[in-house]
């Protein structure tokens, strides 16, 4: 049984397209049942209260999210976006609802095992709701409380060999097309360059030193599957020079 009546949000489930409202409801039900017997570290009703506060925003025709302020982990200036609700008594499950940006693997390849390990952290320590992936490229984990941030950060960096992404005036999480791992058009190894530069510029990624965001994106060819030219400040687009060269030795019959 839903915690809040949401007649306006329910309309968003009526069209032929997939609905985020249905997804949030599914997560709310799964958390209420808790079939895995998890010791949830943030309020179990978080997704329910998310639906409740959204319904209220539609009714009042204004947002009930306060703009975040600064929250994060020690030593970093980005990667976590603070969100607080201005109606915490009515919606205690989303009194804090911080977003965690997590650096996606180059080309967005995951094994099922790795994906499950990531989501185990987030079910336990966050809302269980994600946006895979945000416009920048990161995995975007939607909704947790301040005390969970260091715990999540520890597990990501010590157990899962990944890290927070960028936010604010820093280098944003670089992203790339899947390039030559699967695509015949690739003119260079986008994954290699994306991964190498992500490692090279860790300081710029985690410690905002710029007056504004700065983005790198890598397209293997001018088809532009990550739309590097439109979406980044530093676009790398694969092309070729000279006539096409054929290694006649290799192709001879
Ligand atoms: C629960 C509420 C919210 C959710 C689920 C949400 C979700 C998101 C997502 C998915 C992104 C994209 C991240 C990426 O591309 O990597 C984003 C970015 C952003 N959101 Fe929200 N958002 C929320 C509330 C707000 C509010 C209330 C504001 C402003 C008053 C806001 C302002 C922004 C801005 C400015 C960015 C770009 C941040 C940056 O790139 O530095 N969001 N949000
Ligand atoms: C005449 C009024 C405005 C002008 C000319 C203007 C112009 C711009 C420009 C040129 C950008 C950069 C776009 C880019 O990075 O590609 C930008 C970004 C942005 N503006 Fe404005 N802006 C105006 C009003 C506002 C207002 C009223 C708000 C908020 C209430 C706002 C919020 C933002 C945000 C959050 C971004 C960053 C978007 C992102 O993270 O991608 N702007 N604006
Ligand atoms: S940008 Fe080019 S190389 Fe990259 S996936 Fe698209 S078509 Fe392939």
What does this 3D model show about the protein?
It is a single chain. This protein is α/β, with parallel strands linked by helices and 253 residues long. The chain has 2 domains: 141 residues, 2-Layer Sandwich (Alpha-Beta Plaits), CATH 3.30.70; 63 residues, no CATH class. Helix content is 33%, strand content 11%. The protein is built from 9 helices and 9 strands. The strands form 3 sheets. It has a 4-stranded antiparallel beta sheet with strand order 2-4-6-5, with no helix packed on it. It has a 3-stranded parallel beta sheet with strand order 7-8-9. Strand 5 and strand 6 form a beta hairpin. Helix 2 runs antiparallel to helix 3 and helix 4 packs antiparallel against helix 5. The termini are far apart. The chain binds protoporphyrin IX containing FE (2 copies) and iron/sulfur cluster. The site of iron/sulfur cluster has 12 residues, from loops.
Identify the bound ligands.
protoporphyrin IX containing FE, iron/sulfur cluster
Structural class: alpha/beta
Return the CATH class of the largest domain.
Alpha Beta
Mean pLDDT across every amino acid position: 95
- Helix percentage: 25-40%
| CATH architecture label name of the largest domain | 2-Layer Sandwich
Spell out the helices and strands N to C.
HHHEEEEHEEHEHHEHEH
If helices are DSSP runs of H or I spanning 4 or more residues, what is the number of helices?
Answer: 9
Percentage beta strand: 5-15%
Main pleated sheet: 4 strands, antiparallel
Number of strands: 9
CATH-defined topology of the largest domain: Alpha-Beta Plaits
């Amino acid at each position: 049984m839903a915690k809040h009546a949401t007649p306006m949000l329910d309309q968003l489930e009526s069209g032929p397209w997939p609905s985020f409202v249905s997804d949030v409801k599914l997560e709310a039900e799964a958390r209420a049942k808790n079939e895995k017997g998890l010791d949830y570290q943030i309020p179990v009703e978080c997704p329910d209260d998310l639906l409740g506060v959204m319904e209220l925003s539609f009714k009042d025709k204004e947002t009930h999210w306060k703009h975040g302020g600064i929250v994060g982990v020690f030593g970093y200036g980005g990667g976590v976006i603070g969100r607080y609700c201005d109606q915490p008594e009515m919606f205690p499950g989303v009194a804090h609802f911080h977003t965690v940006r997590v650096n996606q693997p180059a080309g967005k390849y995951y094994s099922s095992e790795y994906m499950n390990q990531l989501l185990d952290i987030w079910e336990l320590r966050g809302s269980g709701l994600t946006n895979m992936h945000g416009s920048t490229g990161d995995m975007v984990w939607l909704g947790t409380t301040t005390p969970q941030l260091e715990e999540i950060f520890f597990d990501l960096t010590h157990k899962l060999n990944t890290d927070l992404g960028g936010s604010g005036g820093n280098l944003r999480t670089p992203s790339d097309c899947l390039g030559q791992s699967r695509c015949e058009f690739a003119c260079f190894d986008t994954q290699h360059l994306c991964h190498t530069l992500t490692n090279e510029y860790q300081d710029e990624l985690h410690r905002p030193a710029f007056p504004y965001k700065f983005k790198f994106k890598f397209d293997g060819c001018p088809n532009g599957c990550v739309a590097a030219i439109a979406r980044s400040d530093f676009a790398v687009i694969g092309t070729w020079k000279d006539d096409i060269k054929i290694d006649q030795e290799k192709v001879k019959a």
